[in-house]
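Minutes, project huddle
Topic: does the predicted pose make sense with zinc ion bound?
PN asked that the exact inputs be recorded in the minutes so nobody has to dig through chat later. Recorded below.
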Amino acid sequence: MSLFVREIPCQELVELVTAYFDGSLSRSERRRFRAHIRGCDHCTTYVEQMREVIEATGTLTEEDIDPVAREELMEAFRGWKAGR
Ligand SMILES: [Zn+2]
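Predicted holo structure (tokens), as shared on screen:
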């Protein structure tokens, strides 16, 4: 298990995703964000979905994130972590 991957919990990444895409993360936050995505299939999928939203709408706000999809993702993360 890599410490690198665990630097940002998945929940935190989900919270940071809008800031990531609007460029408001600091340099070190972006680096940790990208490092997490590299090691986490769940978040890779999530970020790709967010990218599609941005390409479709030209923007991304918290309101653009389907609350149901978001909750399902959080559940998946919880189950995934509990399984370790
Ligand atoms: Zn993750």
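Observations noted during the meeting:
- Residues 41-57 form the longest helix (17 residues).
- The pocket of zinc ion is lined by residues 10, 13, 36, 40, 42-43 (CB under 6 Å).
No decisions taken; revisit at the next huddle.
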